[in-house]
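Why should sequence recovery work at all? Because a backbone constrains its sequence more than one might expect. Tight turns favour small or flexible residues, buried strands favour hydrophobic ones, and helices have their own preferences. The token representation captures these environments compactly. In the example below, the structure is given first.
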């Protein structure tokens, strides 16, 4: 993969910048499995549906040998053992095993697996007819956390990371007629994973997003970036150039690539360089820019040889000027909420159009123009819908609180995850921020790690702003001085705080003064827990009234901070978290939602609506 060499070169440079040694094995996994950009706009054979499954508790000796190496000669072989006679040396059988729906987490589909963290093996048969001069990729939208894939008994690939897609070239392992695939998914937590061992959400295991086979010509478009040209400054009158690149995997130098935007009567051709990349620029007369009020998307056709792909792409400019955030040159204020990728009403990981519709209905009810998709990349459907509906998005990788920041291999993984996130979604106008982390401890290793990562993100994508949610400003009495050195590396700073819930009372917020650098800030988390239907006075814990009181004082405090450009209460909807174990109040849920997990509106919803529509807590300038 030529392109990979190029990416690795930059990757090694980033490591050097970080001050991490580069001599050891560079990565534990092959980086950038997310080969196919725009995969949901390609013709694919869906492998969604019922898959057989078998459960393996730790230490999972069918998957790992005593040294922890992956075994390829266990369940992976799917040998249909003879169970009615002869020696019993392999005691499993996928063909008679129960099935579960893929995509779908195992926790909400099998009551015995509700709290299971370990290995589940999945298997299914499928018919396939290979076509000459094509390549076929096995695509997984996400599987949490580690996955190992075998096709017809041979190892196809491994992937680490629960929230980004991977594509494995299955061409040489596929055969005409019946085929079978086995995937072992391991949701066990480890210190050096991302996230690390403790986090405040539910560890849904399994193949949680779409699975498909994608067949492409032998030379094909694997990656592209089509955006409004991002110059040193923005002027509405000159915003008429679309630029970017198309990468053709398998092609060398001199292949012609066409980029067409038929609706705007614009087209151009470009030629690949030695790495298969064709950069282009095309003038588009009368280009309508994407913005929340008018989220215009154009059909963009890409063609390289016999490969064609059409994507829906919006064009907009986002940048920072002093403490302002400018969208298409106009200062904006962001109002919205945080959201976990949890399906309203039915529970479990978000994976269907219906789930996304439900999430958006809550966002619309609060009049949001912005959402922070916490704390990891969400299903591609979410960002597609945001593109269509004009909702601006913060997208994040799961570097949550205590990560092994001093370890090079953890940095390696973070870079891979960052690249996977950016690569999947870089053509989505809705995404305005890439976030590198949430609430990390302020120390030298952390700052070095995340500064390098922020620079890596910026190098990869100059058309978006880089952010992170910080915590823990030094508090002296009522003066809060945010002096985290990580801010240097960020374009926009997220600030989390829980005055009125984890510290002090709601009214304490009235006395706080914030000392912040001259950068745009988002109050990225604040809130209080309230059990839907639980009522009392404004200071009674767990009541809807107290949640209202906390939010009211928070909005009043935020209104006084001149740098604040965005506001996202924690959180749109109650979500499952295995650490929330107060019976009758939490019952396994973090209750800081404005809505319950069943989408019931708490009393704070009218307050948020009134604030966002009549008396905003944040101003564009
Ligand atoms: C935070 C975290 C978020 C938690 C939230 C809480 O600071 O960023 O992941 O869920 O607080 O409710 O404690």
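From this structural description, the recovered sequence reads:
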């Amino acid at each position: 993969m030529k392109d990979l060499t190029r990416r690795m070169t930059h990757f090694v440079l980033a490591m050097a910048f970080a001050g991490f040694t580069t001599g050891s094995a560079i990565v534990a996994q092959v980086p950038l499995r997310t080969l196919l950009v725009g995969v949901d706009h390609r013709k694919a054979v869906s492998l969604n549906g019922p898959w057989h499954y078998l459960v393996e508790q730790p230490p999972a000796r069918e998957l790992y040998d005593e040294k922890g190496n992956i075994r390829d000669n266990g369940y992976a072989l799917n040998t249909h053992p003879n169970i009615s006679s002869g020696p019993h040396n392999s005691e499993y059988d996928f063909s008679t095993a129960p099935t579960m729906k893929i995509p779908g987490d195992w926790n909400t589909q099998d009551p015995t697996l509700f709290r299971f963290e370990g290995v589940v093996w999945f298997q299914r048969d499928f018919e396939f007819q290979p076509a000459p001069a094509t390549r076929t990729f096995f695509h997984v939208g996400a599987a949490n956390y580690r996955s190992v894939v075998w096709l017809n008994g041979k190892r196809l690939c491994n992937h680490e990371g629960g929230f980004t897609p991977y594509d494995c070239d299955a061409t040489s392992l596929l055969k005409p007629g019946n085929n079978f695939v086995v995937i072992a998914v391991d949701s066990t937590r480890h210190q050096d994973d991302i996230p690390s061992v403790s986090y405040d959400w539910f560890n849904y295991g399994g193949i949680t997003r779409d699975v498909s086979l994608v067949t492409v010509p032998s030379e094909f478009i694997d990656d592209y970036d089509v955006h409004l040209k991002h110059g040193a400054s923005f002027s509405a009158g000159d915003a008429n150039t679309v630029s970017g690149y198309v990468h053709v995997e398998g092609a060398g130098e001199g292949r012609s690539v066409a980029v067409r935007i038929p609706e705007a009567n614009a087209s151009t051709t470009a030629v690949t360089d030695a790495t298969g990349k064709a950069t282009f620029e095309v003038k588009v007369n009368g280009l309508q820019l994407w913005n929340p009020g008018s989220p215009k998307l154009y059909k963009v056709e890409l063609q390289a040889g016999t490969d064609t792909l059409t994507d829906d792409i919006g064009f907009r400019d986002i940048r920072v000027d002093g403490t302002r955030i400018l969208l298409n040159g106009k200062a904006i204020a962001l109002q919205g909420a945080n959201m976990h990728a949890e399906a309203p009403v039915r529970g479990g990981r978000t994976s269907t159009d219906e789930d996304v519709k439900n999430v958006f209905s809550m966002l619309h009810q609060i009049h949001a123009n912005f959402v922070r998709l916490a704390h990891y990349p969400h299903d591609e459907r979410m960002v597609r819908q945001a593109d269509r509906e004009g909702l601006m998005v913060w997208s994040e990788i799961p570097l949550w609180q205590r990560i092994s920041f001093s370890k090079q291999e953890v940095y390696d993984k973070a870079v891979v995850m960052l690249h996977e996130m950016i690569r999947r979604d870089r053509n989505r106008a809705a995404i305005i921020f890439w976030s590198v982390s949430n609430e990390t401890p302020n120390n030298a290793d952390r700052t070095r790690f995340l500064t390098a990562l922020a620079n890596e993100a910026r190098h990869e994508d100059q058309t978006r702003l880089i952010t992170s949610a910080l915590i823990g400003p030094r508090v002296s009495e009522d003066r809060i001085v945010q002096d985290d050195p990580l801010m240097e590396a960020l374009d926009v700073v997220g600030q989390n705080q829980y005055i009125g819930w984890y510290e002090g009372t709601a009214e304490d917020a009235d006395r706080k003064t914030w000392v912040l650098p001259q950068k745009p800030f988002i109050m990225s988390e604040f809130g209080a827990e309230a059990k839907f239907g639980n009522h009392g006075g404004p200071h009674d814990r767990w009541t809807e009234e107290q949640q209202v009181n906390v939010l009211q004082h928070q909005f009043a405090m935020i209104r006084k901070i001149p740098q604040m450009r965005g506001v996202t209460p924690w959180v749109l909807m109650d979500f499952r978290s295995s650490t929330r174990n107060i019976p009758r109040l939490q019952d396994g849920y973090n209750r800081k939602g404005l809505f319950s997990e069943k989408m019931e509106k708490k009393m704070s919803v009218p307050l948020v609506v009134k604030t966002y529509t009549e008396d905003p807590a944040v101003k564009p300038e």
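A few observations help interpret the result. The pocket of GCB is lined by residues 200, 375, 438-439, 496, 525, 570, 590, 592 (CB under 6 Å).
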